[in-house]
């Protein structure tokens, strides 16, 4: 018997007229997982969520929730609930009425509704707010009502569409932590749509990175950050330096890329690389060391300090290489700020591990 | 005029206007009143004063050839409750209510349909809705006359000549014809405020209700209807008030047999030369409309509280 997933998408596509919003997406989300769909606006992540919720029907493919194909099932008959981007709280109802709505529609007995609503309001710290209307609540409180209104139904899967997008930075950070611990408490599968990479990295068990309707990469936060499989993923998540080059030689373990005759870097080999291929080499700013002693498994390049930017906890250096390329290096300000040690026009050696070097085929 | 005189005139004007500006800055409420003066005098001369004249006339005795004699009486109001007039009065209320209900039943789905179209289609449809207003109401009512008339009307003539009927349908000179004319005339006024309310309604609320296990009918009853209620009430007011006071439609389509209170009032002034009695009827009708308006304001105030 095949493993049962909380949600499974098989070759799902959605077209709006000539526009393909979701293009052949297949993914499996495990029970109890905190799964994020991450991508820029217009990448199809929200459409994917709406397909699961049943607000849109797929042009192609199948969607399974709890192992059951959803077919043309309307939204009101699917065992999922949604937290909307702008909460979509009913303005003419009180907090209590809003949160009770789903249970009422399912025909749950009055007494049970009372108990469950009371429980969930305690869970999101809204006890005492029952008689307020949405407009009388702060953004953070509205957010909690939206969450309570969905959670009270004990859905198999909770769908969240950028639920923290409308909150200010401080509140957003606090809610991230709260959401994560809430998810662990209730054990419900969360599918979380966001364009904020940091949010996705902080909260998710796994992340699916989307662009132009396609699911580009699927993995844990560490996997998508440390081993991006495409230039888009490495660009979208975190910062990256890029160097254009050509594959010079390779064996089963290592590949050597020539940037300029005198600049050569090595990286872990990939099966689809061929000698002579044009490639882009990528390395993250925080992986690079300044003037450290030579090591066997490190790339070493010399350059000149072109700029120094002090940002409190870190200092960024722009290093100009012999060929004119500029590489950004970020150093932690352990002890004194590193900006005290290096100054513009200083000759400098930068080095980074082979393992932290990614090669993308152009 | 010498240059010097010109200069001194100029200086005088400048000083004057400056002192006026200064005064206006010192007394902002005075400025407000000054700016309101044209509108306010218009309202007093053409609205408030006639209203009080009507109210005053309704307590006076009639003159022989129209007008009034200055003799206080409550006789006019006693006559209003004469069964003959009271019957017409109640019938008018009944016709106005049916007109409002029919307009609502037709207008709500129409408003909903328009509000759910893409923005550009919406404007086209709204324009189509308002185009009839470009033609005079009287002319449009006469157009209905040619369609509905018993023996020479378009419908009956075609049905009889096609052999579908051998006797004309009673389409004219009755309450049906009046209702049709009133619904036709006031339907757009019902649609517009409902459309405005529905257009503002956040689509994600409908999705949220759907997501919370509410099928279409429940979504309508629990979300769409309560949130469009201010528009429904406004539209109903805008239809009910003119329908109650209608006199062109019953005069033309009622065929002189089916009358409404508006016809009786206009008769008192134009034919019977009984201005005080016409005024009393008007006063009573205004009272009724005032009551309806108060109901409206109470319901919108509740709507605004929800908005807050």
What does the average pLDDT of chain A come to? 92
Task: State the fourth-level CATH superfamily of the largest domain in chain A.
Answer: P-loop containing nucleotide triphosphate hydrolases
Helix content of chain B: over 70%
Low-confidence stretches of chain A: none
Distance linking N and C termini of chain B = 65 Å
> What is the string of helix and strand elements of chain B?
HHEEHHHHHHHHHHH
| Number of helical segments with 4 or more residues of chain B | 13
Main sheet specs of chain B: 2 strands, antiparallel
Going by CATH, what is the homologous superfamily of chain B? MetI-like
Shape of chain A: elongated
Q: What proportion of the residues of chain A is helical, as a percent range?
A: 10-25%
Spatial order of the strands forming the largest sheet of chain B: 1-2
CATH architecture call of the largest domain in chain A:
3-Layer(aba) Sandwich
Global mean pLDDT of chain B: 88
Could you describe the 3D structure shown?
The complex is a heterodimer of chains A (362) and B (308). With 362 residues, chain A is an alpha+beta fold. Chain A folds into two domains: 7-235, Rossmann fold (3-Layer(aba) Sandwich), CATH 3.40.50.300; 239-361, OB fold (Dihydrolipoamide Acetyltransferase, E2P), CATH 2.40.50.140. Chain A has eight helices and 20 strands. The two termini of chain A are 42 Å apart. The mean pLDDT of chain A is 92. In chain B, helix 1 (3-26) crosses helix 2 and helix 4 (83-115) crosses helix 10 (216-244). Chain A binds chain B through residues 53-55, 74-77, 80-82, 84-86, 88-92, 101-102, 105-106, 133, 135-136, 149-150, 153, and chain B through 202, 204-205, 207-215, 218, 222-223, 226-227, 306-308.
